[in-house]
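User
Please review the sequence:
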Amino acid sequence: MNRYEHFKSQETIEINREPEHAYFFSYDNTESALTYQKKYTSKVKLLNGKWKFNYSEYPDGIPSSFHEETFDDSDWDYITVPSHWQMEGYGHPHYTNVQYPFPVAPPDIPSINPTGAYRKMITLSKDELSERTTLRFEGVESAFHVWVNGEFVGYGTGSRTASEFNISKYLVEGQNTLAVKVYKFSAQTYLEDQDMWWLSGIFRDVLLIRKPVLSIEDIKIQTDFDNKYIDSELSIDIRLTNQPESYTIRYTLLDQQNNVIASDSDKAVKAFKKILQIKEPRKWSAEDPYLYNLLIELIDDQGNIIDLIPNRVGFRKIELKDGLILINGQHIIFKGVNRHEFHPEHGRAVSVETMIEDLNMMKAHNINAIRTSHYPSHPVFYDLCDQYGFYVIDETDIETHGFVFIDDWSQLSKDAYWEAAYVDRIRRMVERDKNHASVVIWSLGNESGFGSNHQAMADWVRENDPTRLLHYEGETRDILERTNNEPQELNRTADMFSTMYTDVDTMEKLGKRTDLAQPHILCEYAHAMGNGPGAFKEYVELFYKYPRLQGGFVWEWIDHGIKIDRPDGKEAYAYGGDFGEKPHDSNFVIDGLVMPDRTPSPALLDYKKAIEPIHVRAIDLENGQFEIENRYDFIDLSAVYGVWEIQTQGETISKGELDISTISASSSRTVDIPFSLEEIDKDSHLTIRFLQKYPTEWAEAGHEIAWEQFEVGNREPKKVMLSPKESVTLADEESKISVSGDQFAWILDKLTGRISQYKVSGEVIIQNGPKHNYWRALTDNDRLGLEEFGTSPVADTWKEAGVDLIQERINEVKIVSKEQQLPVIIEVQSNLAPAVYNWGFNVLTTYRVSNDGSFEVSVKATKYGEGSETLPKVGMQMKLSDQFNQVKWLGNGPGESYSDVQLAAKNGVYEKSVDDLFTPYIMPQENGNRSEIRWVEIKNNRGNGIKVTGERFNFSLRAYSTEQLGEKRNNVELEKESLLELNIDHQLNGIGSASCGPGVLRRYQLFNQSYQYNYRISPI
């Protein structure tokens, strides 16, 4: 092998890399230390910024002498560090979910191996050379060599953990040349087959770190509690770089007001442990993330502080006890998300500001846990999780999913030749992140089968950090596959059962098990791809019903759409295949709770509601008695206040406040709300809301944490008496029936059985329809399905039965009312059936046209034949003039809702424009439905229009046809049409999460059977 071809060898994991240690820095004084900001220490030089850069499709395409001091790089480009070179215009991003983008023949990699050469000039003073200097790369993808001043320094692998090199002997006063050669593929790439874009380069911080030759090399901090969880033991392990002679170590524990809680000192030796007894510390949890500051000082025999390191300390204890995960002795539920590092313009080079934006949104939406899928995040992210309060599953940078295509998923995991690489990756993660209170579970990686190498990883972690639990879904999968989902044994490497996308029924069976001494979590569930997912409610109800089901982590946080400028000048978010890459997995990477620009999707709002920490139950609705349950595990509701209001037709008729401050954690209280149902109109709603009293880092005072709504009212509403109207003119012609009055004209086309024109006050509103409709633009969950999770695309079933080919045959159109009788009654008898097949509906559609211009539509459909088991929807569709784009409705809102995705919908009166009704999913699909509608008004800017009333129907109104939504690949390709599409739907099939998981629950399915419904359209 060539001297610098280590990237081709699995055996070479690193060269000259320093042992990993906890993530900390030395500071010059206490004031700067307590900022925890690298910019306030003279000991750290951040090398981020512009570097010289050269790119080649081949490693040998880089000039062999590029690392020499005298090399002329004047004609090289500049690139930003940190970044991925694909995001800077070199090569292109490539998305795959499971499959490797090259032949599977470990450790061999393609000869076409895009490579980047980086050069950076660093100026150092004489004083800066007086100490030990290390060069630290927080993340380089996937392998790299390093040179300083022409001298080879070392080699690193493991893209998402740090590599640090001692470069003291290579540095000189003045100008220094740093050169780095980065390879897209290496033998270690076989361990990095995660579901994400293939991106390369120096994508995290590069640091130059100075420390005294004798200094603190590593610190391990652990906390424990007595059996009553009152007093704690603070254990501090310290390792120095050398054996000191007359040095002292001083420890000072401060609270957040910088009061000294404990202090002590010892004579320093190379490696030692200190234990401090702490009386009644304030405990850390995701709900109350209280952090102390621990200052560790190395002092010489002259009293000079040689090294000063600050550490945040959260006092908490993690246990597996009686088959449950406990934190500080309390059973918890993970209300989590899987979080990739991603930014639409920078890939995995994510700024601290973006991390904070993510965490603010998570806290505001009641999320309390994060799985770092599927690799360790940037080290600063864990500092933020400590501060904000999240339970973190820290996941090792290992995934070999692509081996499923050669039917040997576990090939590398059971191969002893790869054991060192497996253990190296978890060791570096644990050593780096071991002092974070937020990290409660270590994960051995993701989707890599199961084998002896996982056992070796688990053995190492248990020996070096017995204070946390271990996770690995692959072992549970192995157990369940061998037992047909009836586990008879416990996990050995993991401390819990963990599954992905398990359906609700199976989860309930597993929840009922009382014989398993390990809990169960869903490390992935509720695949948030496009419109959906459905059934958050059912999962969360199980978590609260069965203690051993301790929550889950939604897949995933963000759509990985890459921002691009299209040839047509439009800005778009790209997904798999948009860069011409093969193979690819299309838009499967667009599967987050937030869109690429971090706009919350409707699913995030639904999830927030499902996992809200305050729950309300009506004990006696008739007498206004309710139970309020505090579902927080550690905090009372003193920082929350309650408000209630009763609305009728969107108008507030009564309101008040609730004092809930004394409800302690995990307890309930009954409250009374003063109202009389006899004094409230039917169809009114009582809404109880719980709001933040004080501002926090993530939300203003008044932020809504939770809410509940109840339908109330017994009184019949007053009926509006209409003044007499003029008679109408009825004309029955050969091809049409016309009904007209002073202010309206209504025309039915006998050939189609549909309204060809509805005109009010001289303005044409309806131009075509209503036509019977069973089809919707397919959602990702309709058109995708995975056999692994027992689902197949329901859209295939619909198409195989011809649901998308249904045609209408008009059998008879007749006027059944007598002459001069009002309303005018017209019946249309028709048959709706698909081409090719022999099933369908015999339908009677009745129009009743009144003299005020309103008309009622009644539908009675009788099913015959077999057909598909379910239908996408049942309803009617019509075309409106595009000027009627202002919408007001009474029903669920303000966002879209479907039968299994409507937790976040409050019943009320809302107003939006047509554009604002639309949800711009990256892949166009069915969207924008509003459910539980009593009435909807559709007007133009002059206030003219129509009002549709009915019994809890659905509506959507958009500027794009169903056909266009089903044809386009990206939402920027959609073109507004000259007519608006109005859907008035009786029912819709649920959404589910079959794109990766279970389909629509049976209770939310729309079965293919006889049906009937009616609604009324009135002029405004």
